[in-house]
Amino acid sequence: MTLLLAGCGTTPSAGGSADKSLILATTTSTQDSGLLDELLPVFTRDSGWQVKTVAVGSGQAIEMGRRGEADVLLVHSPAAEEKFVAEGSAGPRRLVMHNDFVLLGPKADPAEIRGTGSTEAMKKIAAAEAVFVSRGDESGTHTKEQGLWSKAGATPGGSWYQSTGQGMGATLRVASEKAGYTLSDRATYLTQRDTLALEVLSEGDAGLLNVYHVIEITKKAGDRVRPDGGKAFADWVVAPPAQRLIGEFGRAKFGQPLFTPDAGADESKLGQ
Predict the structure, then answer these.
(1) Which of 61, 80, 63, 75 is nearest to 147 (CA)?
(2) What are the Cα distances from residue 248, in Å, to 40, 112, 260?
């Protein structure tokens, strides 16, 4: 497990001694894309809350919330999120934003997936036993990847299927070095594209939608939880000023925003 800590010199424990300090457990994609670097200083300026960030896979972030080791989550694994909220220790879960996943691979494209839909692409990769590099870390991206294999009726395994157990940025570098295929959120890929020998080969179908929610944690998860801090962040990130920041992030550098703000939207209509 790789922990990426921001704004904290030591491994944090929920409800630390700082008067207004909260712990945000989130995905590596929000860290690796640079989005948090854009949002968190503004949140601190607006609210007075300092943020200690732990960037891991969504599954690990949810486990932190379950154990009362975080005050708020920003994650992208909807089925796991819904299960967690149903357990009763979480507070409100609100829609924040979306982007999409892309299937990446080397320019040579040995499995010939270029331009195909995600289901057909996964079938071709498995049939060719082409190198595929998985995060293998129970993250939202890993969960999405597993769903794509299942939808394709393919069971990955053997020497061609390799897991890093690391975040998105590290997994992209491994896939590039091995001239393999991988699944990535578009934002992290775009921020690292110039350092990678990988191209977008399959994109745009409904199965590749990537939706993010913010989830508050309550004291039912543990006495150290700061529900006031979690609520402050959750309220802020779905409010219009933060949503505008999200909608503009990446536009100047990449010619397109890396995330689409969705607070208040009908989630059933996303991607349509």
Answers:
(1) 80
(2) 15, 35, 9
Sign of CA dihedral 94, 76, 122, 108: positive
Structure tokens at 163: 């897991």
Q: Which H helix or E strand runs over 104?
A: strand 90-105
Give CA torsion, residues 217, 218, 219, 224, to 10 deg: 30
Domains and CATH numbers, the chain: 4-99+210-269 (3.40.190.10), 100-208 (3.40.190.10)
**Which backbone phi and psi does 84 adopt, to 5 degrees?**
-65, -45
- β partners of residue 261: 97
Residues 6+ apart with CB under 8 A from 133: 162, 163, 164, 171, 174, 175, 178, 180, 181, 182
Distance CA 97, CA 117 (A): 23
Taking the C-alpha atoms of residue 119 and residue 152, their distance in angstroms, rounded to an integer, is 5
Which of the four pLDDT bands, split at 50, 70 and 90, describes residue 268?
confident
Helices 35-47 & 227-237 angle (0-180, nearest 10) = 120
What is the token pair recorded at 65? 């919330």
**Farthest CA pair distance, the chain:** 56
d(CA 97, CA 114): 27
Render pLDDT for 20-51 as a digit per residue (tens, 0 to 9).
999 999 998 899 899 999 999 999 999 999 99
**How far apart, in whole angstroms, are the C-alpha atoms of residue 129 and residue 37?**
39
pLDDT in tens, 175-205: 999 999 999 999 999 999 999 999 999 999 9
Tokens representing 26 are 């989130």
d(CA 25, CA 63): 10
